[in-house]
Specification:
221 residues, two-stranded antiparallel ribbon, alpha/beta, 14% strand, five-stranded parallel sheet, Alpha-Beta Plaits, binds iron/sulfur cluster, 31% helix, disordered C terminus
């Protein structure tokens, strides 16, 4: 499998050792800058798109973002992953336990490969603040488009809004998240769980889920 690990903004907040993770699962891993801050046309996002678009290996994504927000952001960036993990406040051992528990629940074995290399991708980034939209649950009411005074949203060919000018968003303001009737606009770094996408009421899913991962493990067994 391929492990993608989004480092936190501040290095001292990184509580998970990606090298240990790669060695434990004998999988190649890529360490990237904090994904929320990455420019969508930058070299890191472009590289991840290419690496994930044609691989048959399951791709596991780790970040400190709520899973629902991470999934929506990855979809927006056209980075294809099979499973997202939120490592916030977790140790390496706890993350390994979480993955193994998920596999045990499916009665699967852990895949063993011979590549546990970790590639460190770097790119200059600055701290950003913008909404992430879970478009698959958007009703298309366009209240967000009409509400935002700063032209952050535009309407796509599917008649649903998309975040067109993210960096026009006012830093720290989550206003449109509060007016969205579907609750699908998230600000992943907001302290309110219902705005960040971390609320237990919000579904935490990424399409494909564990199925592809466990199918492959079956094949390797
Ligand atoms: S307010 Fe929410 S549901 Fe309505 S269009 Fe915007 S994102 Fe979609
Ligand atoms: S928080 Fe405010 S500025 Fe940012 S997208 Fe929403 S309405 Fe626009």
């Amino acid at each position: 499998m391929l492990i993608i690990f989004s480092r936190q903004r501040s290095e001292e907040n990184n509580s998970v050792d990606i090298q240990q993770l790669a060695e434990h699962f004998r999988s190649a891993a890529v360490s990237i800058p904090f994904i929320y801050d990455l420019p969508p046309t930058g070299k890191t996002v472009t590289s991840l798109r290419e690496r994930t678009s044609d691989t048959e290996k399951p791709v596991l994504f780790f970040s400190s973002l709520p899973v629902r927000a991470a999934g929506a952001l990855l979809t927006t960036l056209k980075i294809s992953v099979d499973f997202c993990f939120d490592v916030t406040g977790k140790t390496t051992a706890a993350v390994i336990t979480e993955i193994e528990a998920a596999l045990r629940a499916e009665r699967k074995n852990i895949p063993l490969e011979n590549n546990s290399s970790v590639e460190n991708l770097t790119e200059p980034v600055s701290e950003r603040w913008y909404p992430v939209v879970y478009r698959s649950e958007c009703s298309g009411c366009l209240e967000c488009v009409n509400f935002c005074l700063f032209g952050v949203y535009a309407i796509g060919g599917d008649n649903l809004p998309f975040v067109d000018l993210p960096d026009n968003c006012r830093n720290g303001c989550p206003a449109c998240s509060r007016i969205c009737p579907q609750g699908v606009i998230m600000f992943p770094l907001h302290s309110d769980d219902s705005i960040s996408g971390r609320s237990p009421k919000q579904k935490a899913e990424v399409s494909g889920g564990l199925d592809k991962l466990t199918d492959l493990i079956d094949e390797m067994a």
